[in-house]
């Protein structure tokens, strides 16, 4: 899962010893949520596809404007969203903003881009000691990665197969059953 939070744009104000932030618009919040620089994991979501996305907007704003902006993101970036999961982007709006801000947004997305991070971390054996310390074997991770790669290859084979091939296989099975 990838998470992001919008960047707060502001400048230091020495008199109040606090930061003053410029209020962001709904389009700016939406753009920042999907920006790779604001992701809380070190992977670029443009290197994968989103299976599902959940967003939470906080503050006084139009639900209609939020829905329009999210629809714009999906339409302009349709190649970054899988087409086989209908209605895979959900939004919520809470009228109460975080303290000190007029609006804010949070994003959680299930993206295939996380695999690049997993692969890099697994090669370095990062965090592996936590699992082996609990009784797991490193070989279990290697086997799971291999099984996952096999499954991905199988799915890609079906995805790349033309529709006629699937029909021909069904016809052959029907003919064999009749004999």
TrEMBL record:
Residue ranges constituting the Tubulin/FtsZ 2-layer sandwich domain according to the UniProt record: 14-123
Cofactor: Mg(2+)
Extent of Acidic residues compositional bias: 162-179
UniProt keyword Membrane present: no
Sorted UniProt keywords: Cytoplasm, Cytoskeleton, GTP-binding, Microtubule, Nucleotide-binding
MF terms (GO), sorted A to Z: GTP binding; GTPase activity; structural constituent of cytoskeleton
Annotated compartments: Cytoplasm, Cytoskeleton
GO BP terms, alphabetized: microtubule-based process
Annotated spans, Disordered: 153-179
InterPro entries associated with the record: Beta_tubulin (IPR002453), Tub_FtsZ_C (IPR008280), Tubulin/FtsZ-like_C (IPR037103), Tubulin/FtsZ_2-layer-sand-dom (IPR018316), Tubulin_C (IPR023123)
Entry's Gene Ontology cellular component terms: microtubule
Main location: cytoplasm
Self-association and partners: Dimer of alpha and beta chains. A typical microtubule is a hollow water-filled tube with an outer diameter of 25 nm and an inner diameter of 15 nM. Alpha-beta heterodimers associate head-to-tail to form protofilaments running lengthwise along the microtubule wall with the beta-tubulin subunit facing the microtubule plus end conferring a structural polarity. Microtubules usually have 13 protofilaments but different protofilament numbers can be found in some organisms and specialized cells.
Protein family (similarity comment): Belongs to the tubulin family.
Summary of the function given for this chain in its UniProt record: Tubulin is the major constituent of microtubules, a cylinder consisting of laterally associated linear protofilaments composed of alpha- and beta-tubulin heterodimers. Microtubules grow by the addition of GTP-tubulin dimers to the microtubule end, where a stabilizing cap forms. Below the cap, tubulin dimers are in GDP-bound state, owing to GTPase activity of alpha-tubulin.
Protein name per its UniProtKB record: Tubulin beta chain-like
Species per Swiss-Prot/TrEMBL record: Branchiostoma belcheri (Amphioxus)
Protein encoded by which gene: LOC109464900
